Amino acid sequence: MAELTSTKLNPESHLLLDQPLLRLPAELCRKNFKLAALHVEHDRKSLLGALKNAANDSLSGKKRPSETLDSLDSMINRMKNLKRKMEGFHEEEETLHRQTRKRLEHLHDLYQIPSLADVKYDDWSRVRLNRLLVDYLLRSGYGESATALAKEKEIEDLVDLSVFVQCHKVEESLRRGSTQECLVWCSEHRELTRKTHNALEFELRLQQFIEFRRKGQLLEARLHAQRYISLNTTTSKPEIHRAAGLLAHPPGTRVEPYKGMYSESRWEFLSNLFVKTHHELFSLPGRPLMHIALSAGLSALKTPSCHSEYASSSSNASSTTTTVCPICSTELNELARNLRHVQHQKSSVEHDPIVLPNGRVYGRERLLEMSAKVGLVEGKVKDPTTSEVFDASRIRKVFLT
Question: 327 pLDDT exceeds 60?
Answer without folding.
Answer: yes
